[in-house]
Design goal:
The structure holds 2 protein chains of 2 kinds.
Chain A: E1 4-7, E2 10-13, E3 19-25, E4 31-37, E5 43-51, E6 54-57, E7 65-67, E8 73-78, E9 87-94, E10 106-107, E11 111-115
Parallel strand pairs in A: 2-11
Antiparallel strand pairs in A: 1-3, 3-8, 4-5, 4-9, 5-6, 7-8, 9-10, 9-11
Chain B: E1 3-5, E2 10-14, E3 19-21, E4 24-26, E5 32-38, E6 44-50, E7 56-58, E8 64-68, E9 73-78, E10 87-94, E11 98-100, E12 104-109
Parallel strand pairs in B: 2-12
Antiparallel strand pairs in B: 1-4, 3-9, 5-6, 5-10, 7-8, 8-9, 10-11, 10-12
Classes of the chains: A mainly beta, B mainly beta.
Chain lengths: 116, 110
Amino acid sequence: NAGVTQTPKFRVLKTGQSMTLLCAQDMNHEYMYWYRQDPGMGLRLIHYSVGEGTTAKGEVPDGYNVSRLKKQNFLLGLESAAPSQTSVYFCASSSGRGAVGTDTQYFGPGTRLTVL
Amino acid sequence: AQSVTQPDIHITVSEGASLELRCNYSYGATPYLFWYVQSPGQGLQLLLKYFSGDTLVQGIKGFEAEFKRSQSSFNLRKPSVHWSDAAEYFCAASDYKLSFGAGTTVTVRA
């Protein structure tokens, strides 16, 4: 089992460019999450999904879009990148046996994004 | 507003010494409580979690945490620290969405 994988590991964008971050999990988990991690602020939830075809906003959703077309994949898109989106992005998944956010989350290794 | 507070930004501890990391939460009702560890350049790994029942929770890597309702705290402890415990530790709480504290960085000196 690879667990949770994220592509790419690093990326540098110019302001206004767009990109998509891919998260894949092979644990047949129902729930998936995208977080951003900034120094001194812990992790903040961007968007999450409780199943294929469903998404919901988290704490800091502005400037991001997501899609969950397949159960194993959760995509995070930046349509017009801004320097404030420079961060480390983590994807996570959980089984879905409990209410969302209450069961153990398994994290990917992260994507370090720099927006110039 | 719901929040998780980790009062200590950085802790330095000698190898073999005990470690305690503090966590306080502010929720209307007792949330689900978690401790995660992040090694440099890695994702987060769950150390332990508390939902209900026994207030002393055992986790992996020799860690334990104690839930104290009266103090709204969920402190993490380890009796004897190893050099490999150097990492960033996050306390988290959830009623339906997971909220993380800002993290405590632990440095282990020989």
